[in-house]
Every structure is written in C-alpha cells, then in structure tokens.
Design brief:
Helix content of chain A: over 70%
Shape of chain A: elongated
Distance between the termini of chain A: 36 Å
Structural class of chain A: mainly alpha
Radius of gyration of chain B: 24 Å
Number of strands of chain A: 0
Largest sheet of chain A: none
Number of helices of chain B: 11
Order of helices and strands of chain A: HH
Shape of chain B: elongated
Oligomer: heterodimer
Chain lengths: 69, 208
C-alpha cells in the first residue's frame, strides 16, 4: 500500500499518524472524565505533533529536480 | 463551539487525509500540493486547537472535578442546608456559576492562574490513578487560601465594603484587602467544605 517514492511514503505515514491523532481526539471529545483529558493531551498531542512534523520534514527533505533550461 | 461541530470537522479532516494516504500521487500537481497542505497541516492543526479549547473548557466544569470519587464529599458539601457553610452558600445562591463552582473559587486570579490550576489538576490525576490519594477529609490546599480569590468578586461590593462586621473594626477591611487577615479565619467564614461532618448534615434538594 505504501508508495515507492520516498516523498509520497512520508506523506502517507504522516497521513496515517494524523488520522490516528484525529480519531483519538474525536473519541476523547466524546468522553467526559479526566482520563479522556489525559489521552487527548498525551496520546493525541503526540500523534498530532509527530504527524505534522513528519509532513513538514517530507517537504523540507524533498529533492528538488533541477530545472531544464 | 459545540462538540458535534468539532466532531464533524474531525470526520471531514479524516476523510481528506485518507485521500492523500490512498492517492499520494495527487501531490505531484501544484493544486495537489496546496490541498495536501490543507489536509495534512492546516485542518489537523485547526481540529487540535478547537478540540484542546473544548477539552480545557470542559475541564473547568463542576462535573469534571467531581468525576473523581475522592471529590464526592466536596460535591456533597455544596448542598449542605446551612448558610454558615461558605461553599454551599456560594453554590446554592449562584454567587459562583454552579457549572464551574470548583474552578471559580480554586483558580488563582493572578497571572497564569489558569495555567497553574491546570498543572495542579494534572498532578491530581497522577496522584489519583498512580499514587496514594489521601482520604477526602485530609486533602489540603497547596498554600493558604488567598483573599485575592474572594476579592476578585467581593471587592467594591456594598455588602462587603459596608457590611456591619467588616466595618466594625476600621483595621479589618485593609487587613482583608492586604491578605493579612484571612476571610476564612475561624469566627469569620471559617466553615468552608467541612467534609468530616457531612454525616450529620442536612442537604438542600432544590436544584439539580
């Protein structure tokens, strides 16, 4: 399922992690106790941070093809 | 913002991110790159911000504070049918918002007071689940209750500034305002929660 292109693979990984983060956030918003709050801030926050940073890293690390003139 | 709207935005974001997981090659076009930025960065960030705001707002609620078993006696103390009980009198007469009763009195009205309250809350959760929580009647404040929290509402109020007891001694009001004499001193407003004597108390059943 993962692409063979390094850039696309990073985007896919970033997307999967962000989906997990979004699902954790959604479930925590349905809960009302302190555990939901902790999961939101801990697990959800880490997944979001990793997903976003991986996306940004994929942009920075992408090789720019030299322009043909 | 209502929770269902945030959940709707989350569902939309998940669907959009899934498009890039299953079809990453669409990022090869200029429009695809811009859509990827929206789906993989802007929208998740917005969802997290709105979710965090909603969670933090919910963490202020009385229901949230009382969801820990150890806090139940403090919740009961808000319904004691005795006007001498300070917390009960405030809660029952809506001197504090009943849905944020704990937070209103136990947050610190100085700079970063809200942040300190949240950090204190995280510590409470840690002690509750992973530590050895004390018996409810042995729970103590981290530091003596500061009059600043009372004066946040009462300063300038006629009942406070011109109250017979408060004005009987000309030194009392300045001492209260300087936090030199505590509002909850014994003989003044000394009965606050008094969870140790709840067994014999009568409870108000007026509102839910």
């Amino acid at each position: 399922m993962l692409s063979t292109s390094p850039l696309e693979r990073k985007l896919q990984l970033s997307g999967i992690i962000l989906i997990l983060g979004l699902l954790v956030e959604g479930l925590c918003l349905l809960g009302h106790g302190p555990i939901a709050f902790m999961l939101f801030a801990g697990l959800g926050g880490v997944l979001f941070a990793v997903g976003l940073l991986l996306y940004l890293y994929s942009l920075v690390g992408a090789k720019v093809e030299p322009s043909k003139q | 913002m209502p929770t269902f709207l945030i959940l709707l935005l989350i569902a939309f974001s998940v669907a959009l991110v899934a498009v890039f997981v299953f079809r990453p090659q669409i990022t090869s076009t200029r429009g695809g790159k811009m859509a990827a930025f929206l789906a993989l960065f802007a929208l998740p960030l917005l969802c997290f911000g709105m979710g965090a705001s909603s969670e933090l707002e919910h963490a202020k609620s009385t229901e949230f504070c009382l969801s820990c078993h150890i806090m139940e006696p403090y919740g009961k103390s808000l319904r004691v049918d005795d006007p001498q009980h300070l917390a009960a009198a405030h809660f029952q007469n809506h001197r504090v918002p009943s849905n944020e009763a704990c937070y209103t009195c136990h947050t610190n009205y100085a700079m970063f007071g809200g942040v300190k309250a949240k950090l204190g809350g995280l510590k409470h959760i840690y002690v509750y689940y992973l530590g050895t929580p004390p018996a409810p009647e042995n729970i103590k404040l981290y530091e003596p209750y500061n009059n600043r929290e009372c004066l946040h509402c009462h300063a300038g109020a006629r009942s406070f500034e011109e109250g017979a007891v408060h004005t009987a001694d000309p030194d009392l009001l300045p001492a209260l305002k300087a936090n030199k004499t505590s509002c909850i001193s014994s003989g003044c407003h000394g009965v606050v929660h008094d969870v140790a004597s709840l067994k014999d108390a009568k409870f108000w059943k007026g509102a839910n």
